[in-house]
Automatic annotation (TrEMBL):
Name by which UniProt lists this protein: RNase H type-1 domain-containing protein
Organism field: Araneus ventricosus
Entry GO MF terms: nucleic acid binding
Amino acid sequence: MLCHGAVIWANQLTEKIKRKLSSIQRKFLLSITGAYHTSSTASLQVISGILPLYLTALKEAKYFKFTKLQEAIMVSNQQIDPTTYESIIKGNQIHPAEFNIDPQISKKEEQQYPIKNSTFTDGSKADEGTGSAFCYFDNTASIIKECQGKLHPDNNVFQAELLAIKQAILFHQNKSIPT
């Protein structure tokens, strides 16, 4: 909250403002660490692992300037240009109301599911236990490899699924059968 708008004020910090920020931070550091009031602020910052407020404000200012304003910043006497970095895309790229899922999911029933040259994996968990399996069909739709495994009851279904996928990948990496 204190660093709000730091892009405007953090670059013109005087020693007087740095001392004021340090005195504000000191009260919180004493409360966090439970140290004696005679402890130095610098040692409290080291013990708690919290940067001095003026450095945090400078960091926030540079981050905002670089990411939001797309302006070059100086770090360790080196200029960093934001146009040389890929920006992170957050959120949906299409509004959910405009997303039409109907053509992406087929609702008609398949007469014959394609199994030629396919690998199927599965993991499951029930009261009886946890297990995983995979099977591989070649290009003539014959089962070439099947593998089943029982896991510890403490394993969850996601671990079982991942184990089946891992085993199938290992099989395909090591098989010498042409597909």
